[in-house]
Amino acid sequence: MKVLVVGSGAREHAIVRSLAADHAVDAVIVAPGNPGMDVIALCEPLSDATDAGAVVELARRHEVDLVVVGPEAPLVAGVADALRDNGFDVFGPSAEAARLEGSKAFAKEVMSAADVPTGMAHLATTLDEVAESMDAFGAPYVIKDDGLAAGKGVVVTEDREAALAHAQACLAKEGGRVVVEEFLDGPEVSLFVVSDGVSVVPLSPAQDFKRVGDDDAGPNTGGMGAYTPLDWAPDDLVEDLVARVAQPTIDEMRRRGTPFVGVLFIGLALTSRGPRVIEFNARFGDPETQVVLARLLTPLGGLLKAAATGRLDDYEALRWSDESAVVVVVAAENYPGTPRTGDPITGVDEVDAVPSAYVLHAGTARDADGQLVSAGGRVLSVVATGADLAEARERAYAATDLVKLDGSHHRRDIALKASRGEISVG
């Protein structure tokens, strides 16, 4: 099987790494990829991942058997539709189904129709409506850009003026709309479910760290680290979420005539009133994918092909490593603002000396001399596994400390509370 992966981040690097390890996969092509993926796959230039014609042409030229669309923007732009129209098997939802991520308001509408437990929310198109909704819910205020915002469209704050300023920035965009939600207490969980449009197969739940600083200080980011499994979560959590959230959502999308094929990312809070969905995404989450795939023993290619071709119902039960996995994201100076780029990165090759540790590239490039340099906000994901979370953390941070990038920063508390048994539910 030949597989084309669309994307260039650490999430795609994790997917490519798992596909390359699948004996049923003969070749992996990635567009545009990055210097890390270039070592294990064929990287093809792609100036715009939302250019459906260019992606279809690549799939044709390489005569691929499966296309995996990584990021949200090409999915919302309809790249998966164009590929299917040209006869390719695709792991990734149609543009209509990807609206579960492309519009927070649409996602709320689907959740309501499917009776999925979620927080109360109001859709606002003016600042007066935002203020009215904020007053109704009270602080902390939760303000979300209705559209795609690369994980940085949400502000959760006690500061009324900061909340209104974020809402104003979102409304200033063309067609700008804002979703104001009630604040949900309790630890957050990320669950991926693979679907063929009818059936769902859950992956191992993870927890990510969205704020830029330790102890959840500072603004939201695309994600600064993650870990799995969640030993503190209820034993029946996944079974409960499949029954109450994932399957009803997939059923509702099929009922609407827009079946969801791909991976549904469910972000939720385990509140004192039970699980409540915070958001849906229409693709693998970053950085949770990096740790979830680190523990998946079932070959990834076969699983994604089964989803793309409607054969999940009789797919074998997934097999998982007993180990824990932790990922630490190394970010460039000034991220999540405008990041500094072009700085040399060293020490990546030294990470191999740390047991089980490896580096996944995200915002990296090669300069004119072939030197690895920073080229984005989240530059690298450093992954490690261990017998338990404490060992996985120790290895991940030992590896992270070997990587040198001027001005870079990373959180020091990824999985710390979980490893100490300090997280409780309800």
TrEMBL record:
Superkingdom in the source lineage: Bacteria
Reaction equation(s) it catalyzes: 5-phospho-beta-D-ribosylamine + glycine + ATP = N(1)-(5-phospho-beta-D-ribosyl)glycinamide + ADP + phosphate + H(+)
GO MF annotation: an example: phosphoribosylamine-glycine ligase activity
Pathway(s) per entry: Purine metabolism; IMP biosynthesis via de novo pathway; N(1)-(5-phospho-D-ribosyl)glycinamide from 5-phospho-alpha-D-ribose 1-diphosphate: step 2/2
Cofactors: Mn(2+); Mg(2+)
Keyword RNA-binding belongs to the record: no
Domain ATP-grasp: 108-309
Known EC number: 6.3.4.13
Enzyme class: ligase
Keywords for this protein: ATP-binding, Ligase, Nucleotide-binding, Purine biosynthesis
GO BP field: 'de novo' IMP biosynthetic process; purine nucleobase biosynthetic process
Alphabetized SUPFAM superfamilies for the sequence: Glutathione synthetase ATP-binding domain-like (SSF56059), PreATP-grasp domain (SSF52440), Rudiment single hybrid motif (SSF51246)
NCBIfam families attached to this UniProt entry: purD
HAMAP family: GARS
Family, per entry: Belongs to the GARS family.
The protein, known as: Phosphoribosylamine--glycine ligase
Organism: Knoellia remsis
